[in-house]
Amino acid sequence: MPPHRWTDETRDATCYYDNVATAAAGGASDADDDDTEVDDERQALCEADVDGDRPLIRAGQTDHSGSSSCGLLQSRHIFGLMGFLGFAVVYAMRVNLSVAIVAMVNQTAIPHSNSSVLANDTCPMPPAPTPNGSFWQSLSTPAEGEFVWDEATQGLVLGSFFYGYVLTQVPGGRMAELVGGKRIYGYGVLITAIFTLLTPLAAHWNLPLLVLVRVLEGMGEGVTYPAMHAMLAHWIPPLERNKFAAVVYAGSNIGTVISMPLTGWLCSQRFLGGWPSAFYIFGLLGLVWFVCWMYLVYDRPSEHPRISRKERAYIERSLQHVQQLQQHQHHHHHQQVADEDVLEDEHDEPEPAAIQEDAIPWRSLLGSVPLWAILLTQCGQSWAFYTQLTELPTYMSNILHFDIQSNALLNAVPYLTAWFVGIACSALADWMLARRYISLLNSYKLWNSIASVVPSLGLIGIIYVGCDWVWVTFMLAGVGSFGGAVYAGNQMNHIALSPRYAGTMYGITNSAANICGFLAPYVIGLIINHRETLTQWHIVFWLAAGLNIAGNFIYLIFASADEQKWSLTQTQTETQTRTRTRARTSGATRPLRI
After folding, report:
1. SS3 6
2. Per-residue DSSP letters for 241-254?
3. 99 near 370, Cβ under 8 Å?
4. Is 0.85 surpassed by the pTM of this model?
5. Phi first, then psi: what are they for 139, rounded to 5°?
6. 417: exposed, middle or buried (C-beta count within 10 Å: 0-12, 13-18, 19+)?
7. Residue 356: count of CB within 10 angstroms of its CB
8. Which class for 125: exposed (0-12), middle (13-18), buried (19 or more C-beta within 10 A)?
9. What Cα–Cα distance (Å) separates residue 588 from each residue in 340, 343, 520?
10. Rounded-to-integer distance, Cα 441 and Cα 444, Å
11. What is the per-residue pLDDT across 513-568, written as a single tens digit (0 to 9) for each?
12. How many of the other CB atoms lie within 10 Å of CB of 87?
């Protein structure tokens, strides 16, 4: 046996341990000489370079149907591109209110309790812009809005989205596992787009209706992440998973980067009434995306009518080899019991797991310590993320006194840098795993720590740089950009724990984490409470940084990268049943071969 279990997320590890699995099967190589199916699959998987850079689908190959497999955009890449654009659209529809609310609210009509004692605890107003001033010098007091909402009411409006968002996380993940992620993800974006279009009408009608519309919008978007997680488990080979997920989920960053400055610009115009135009434009984009998604994307490679045979074989064989490797590692210490099971008489009762194929082991799942570790670190990261997403535009406006266009542009920059850093970190993580420089578990812990601790230091840095907007931007866009490393951290950990229930598990953790989406604005509203001062906002930043670091500390202690026993139960039963059938037919008594 090798001295160290590196990772089953790489082609190298799959090939490396396949020999170990065969040897551990009891030395039955002579009896298995005629069983070439597994060996053929192993040879196909292991044809690639040891650094994992050469795909099995090689340039210039053509399948029997005549379709070339050497195109730049293969079926899984089109799926990834559409998933990327989907997240970009839904995040644009989610965050535009964070910017638009600055133009919607009449800040001067809201009473503030800042007294002369606190005069030194605020940033000075910038001088009036001159005609020859640069863009960055053109800072002014935001234009008067039409709604008189205090900080607590604004927190309710901004947080109402997440009341609905958390309700559909677990149902969305489970529905994606049962009926397929294509429809769940697509209809989720469609519902979000419809209620985005209705937002201006609801805001002008009354506050309760606006809150209800935002709740329903959140319910539509709540299924998107769990549904995509379930689809990734079926579409993406393990060696590509970190990079692929980083690109797909980074659509949220690009959507934010585009939405924030564009919303700021639209709010300053008279087109369609100013701020309502931001909701109309992004809602229409969501409708267009839905039509393209339903035509181009399918739930599994086996259901795609236009996928090449080479690509389908590559995806299915890669996933099958990892599954076989995990089964072997779980059975290794119980091989003797498996041998005895082969000899059982043919009147054995069918095992419950084989009957209840789709039953979720809720007790085991909710009692999983590694799953709780993911949940808690996601809660800490979400609190910091939503503090920046929903409240930072208000900080920029009321404390640093940025106009709405400058405000929106500066708030968008951190998401652009986080996108680049996220892709770079994920590519580096896959490279380190392929070269076996680090185990899968330590890779998760390393990148999760970077994604939690470094951005937290950026939030703390904002406290010490005070009113210097250049340094504030650096802390958010430079230091804070390392939050993108989360895609190589806990985001893929669900699939490692249980590919079978990845969508449900992601729904559980993401639902809990996004409770912070309405808790953070509410708590921040209570902390500020008509006191727009540096001291009150410093409390906000300390709280976000502390929760983020604490969640990562728990993850470092309790995280795991091994597939859990309750996830393997059904696979074991199916494998053992097939083995018994072959043994009774041929009279063989050889041990189970993985």
Report:
1. coil
2. HHHHHHHHHTHHHH
3. no
4. no
5. -105, 135
6. buried
7. 12
8. exposed
9. 12, 9, 63
10. 5
11. 888 877 887 888 888 877 778 888 889 999 999 999 999 999 999 999 888 888 77
12. 25
